[in-house]
Amino acid sequence: MSQTAGVTKRAVDPSLLPPRWTRVLRSAVLFIVGLVITFTATFHEQLGFDLSVVAAALGVIGVVHLVEAVFRRGRSGIPIATALGLLSLLAATLLVILGNELAFVVVIAAWALASALLEFLGSTILPGSRQDSTLVGAAGLLLALTVLLSRGDLVAVIGFFGAYAVIAGVFLGIAAFDTRRATASEDVAQGTAVNA
């Protein structure tokens, strides 16, 4: 980002962006998980239901990240997408294997913290590649904190996970269809900069 005569200019390298369909898919998965959690509130007293919903969500999120890594082959950003995918799959596997209340809380908090740090790392190492990662990382940190603070109340823990899923899903969906980003990408490809 540069500033000349009070005008801010952004340059987005289109080769750094993940494919739009992977961003839309990730957004849809998160949003649907958030809605499932919201509209199944009567089942949240059952640990098995909560484990299955969160494990399925983390598993699908992990697969989406790995698919993104495969489609980014030969371009930058593969290590972050791969790490996010493997982390989510590991968390889903641990939830299924361990299957108790303490593991549920610890795995969600650890996944949220580690994925937030990876999102922040991705935005730092490759600026312009994961513009949405700062907000998603902040939401992950907030999720980790709220889960740890409410660890004794499983209904609150699943509720916070659902809130994270809705917030991140909506934000990622908006960002996937952001026309300013598409315009900036086209302008960078033509060798010009765009006013923000």
From TrEMBL:
Superkingdom field: Bacteria
Pfam families, per the entry: DUF308
Residues annotated as transmembrane: 24-43, 49-71, 78-97, 103-121, 133-150, 156-177
The protein's name: DUF308 domain-containing protein
InterPro entries in UniProt: DUF308_memb (IPR005325)
Keyword terms of this UniProt record: Membrane, Transmembrane, Transmembrane helix
